Amino acid sequence: MNKMPYIAANGFSKMLAPKRSKAACLMALLLGASLLRGEIKVLRNFTLIDGNGRPPLTGAAMILDSGRIVWVGPVTQLQAPAGAQTVDLTGKFVMPGIINLHGHLGNTVDLTQDAKFFTRESVENNLKTYASYGVTAMLSMGTDQDLIFQIRDRQRAGRPSMTRVFTAGQGFIFRGGYGGIAGVNQGVSSAGEVEAAVAVQARNKVDIVKLWMDDDLGRFPKMPYPVAKAIIDNAHRRHLRVTAHIFYLQDAKQLTDFGVDGLAHSVRDKPGDQALVESMKTHGTWQMAATLSREASMFIYASTPQFIDDPFFTRGVSPAAITTLRSPAYRKTISSGPHFKEYPDFWETAKKNLKTLADAGVKYGFGTDTGPPGRFPGYFEHWEMEFMVEAGLTPMQVITAATRNAAEFLGAKDLGTVERSKWADLIVLDRNPLDDIRNTRTINAVYIAGNRVQ
User: Fold this and answer.
1) What is the average pLDDT across 83-97?
2) 198-257-211-378 Cα dihedral, nearest 10 degrees
3) Which of 113, 180, 191, 267 allows an S-S link to 173, with CB 3.0 to 4.6 Å?
């Protein structure tokens, strides 16, 4: 009697006789239906960097079913289902998709930011751009309008074809203070206003709560500590985590002592100290994003940046933005800022503080602050990885930060690594990023939920 295939504990590795259980027979029927739909894919003959920090596996293969990984291992152990679509990736390198823990969606056109630009089209254009660069998930950090919840919920109800979105909804600023976007972030002026404002975000089921703790180098009033503590406490009572935009070491230490869950930037005013390290480790606070590319963007445009003619950059940027970046008037505007000469030092301090925290065992993720003018989605994520290596991290540490670690921070258990049962969000590269982190730019293909991004 003929035997039928079924999905074993380690994938398609056994055969089942018809006399076995009805459940196994049903699984066989589902497999057959998947094959008929063309949902079974086999990727083979690549080197796997799985996101867990383990040494790469040469001669690897995997089987995908309906967008998820059902088996992964050495190609010598592959038992490919008959009729599956097979993709030969000889000479290629496969890693998980990049997860950006700090971006902003939909508010910028060319080099102008305005809440009126926030439309479904603009948000999805950003998500498609991210996807083309291998950024398969991103956390939009506090400048979204309510449309974002419709987009997110629709993605989660199905199988996305563009970058997966997580959102902080409308983040918290001190009224009249720094942060947010006019018309989106209304602000709170006292701790007494916080509970109702947090309740609004909780009803929208935000993925995280964000607050801004900064004065833009003295230009704005800063959020008082009692207001920040009220935000953290109220969010935690509703089982929502909190991340904070910070600049100053003192603010980072105070918010960490309050129990904030993540710092959305590196400390930039001075070197981090042991008190910060100990508080972050005690409270489980993450350095969720260093945003080194964001710091570089504060001064890099005072001259024409080297990447402006790089096809990997220009393919994701509007011609109008490139024209502006080349203009002497724009360069003069950048270089004439009152704190322009300080920005390179802030950037160097941010790099050193990332390395200090990583070496001390503080958990860290990956993020860029892309989206505002001059911080270009897609390209900047790869630039960020380059800067993290400059800061002293190894390529493997950087890749792990941008995949497994970032997924862990999000609580996204089915993202971030190439393992059985997880979504097949993948980047196929022509060259090995462990030899040179800039090889993440040698993108051959991107897959989201098992489908190749067009």
Assistant:
1) 98
2) -120
3) 180
pLDDT at residue 419, rounded to an integer? 98
Residue type, 186: Q
For the chain, the average pLDDT equals 93
Write down the pLDDT at residue 5: 30
Q: Residues 184, 152: contact at Cβ < 8 Å?
A: no
- Show the tokens assigned to 284: 């489980």
- C-alpha distance from residue 70 to each of 3, 30, 241 (Å): 20, 14, 32
Q: How far apart are CA 188 and CA 165, in angstroms?
A: 26
Mean pLDDT of 208-224: 98
CA angle 229, 235, 238 (to 5 degrees): 145
pLDDT of residue 344: 98
Coil/strand/helix, residue 174: strand
Dihedral class, residue 91 (left if φ above 0, else alpha if ψ from -120 to 50, else beta): left
pLDDT, tens digit (0-9, with 9 covering 90-100), for 260-289: 999 999 999 999 999 999 999 999 999 999
Count CB atoms within 10 A of the CB of residue 147: 15
Owner of token pair 């057959």: 32
3-class secondary structure, 100 = strand
Q: Of 73, 59, 3, which is closest to residue 31 (Cα–Cα)?
A: 3
Cα–Cα distance between 306 and 292 in angstroms, integer? 17
- List the structure tokens of 122: 């603009």
The secondary structure of residue 144, as a DSSP letter, is -
- pLDDT at site 307: 96
Residue 18: its pLDDT value, please? 37
- In sequence order, which residues have a C-beta less than 8 Å from that of residue 181 and are 6 or more positions away? 107, 113, 114, 115, 143
Partners of 428 in the beta sheet?
94, 445
Task: Quote the CA–CA distance of 175 and 189 in Å, as a whole number.
Answer: 5
C-alpha closest to that of 279 among 271, 288, 287: 287
- HEC letters along 333-379: HHHCCCCHHHHHHHHHHHHHHHHHHHHCCCCECCCCCECCCCCCCCH
Look-up of token digits 């080349």: 326
Counted residue by residue, the chain has a size of 454
Which of the four pLDDT bands, split at 50, 70 and 90, describes residue 45? very high
Does residue 11 carry a pLDDT above 80? no
Helices 274-283 and 343-359 sit at what angle, rounded to 10 degrees?
60
The answer to whether 305 and 326 are in contact (CB under 8 A) is no
Quickly count: other Cβ atoms within 10 Å of residue 364's Cβ: 28
CA separation for the pair 273, 276 (Å, rounded): 6
> pLDDT at residue 13 above 50?
no
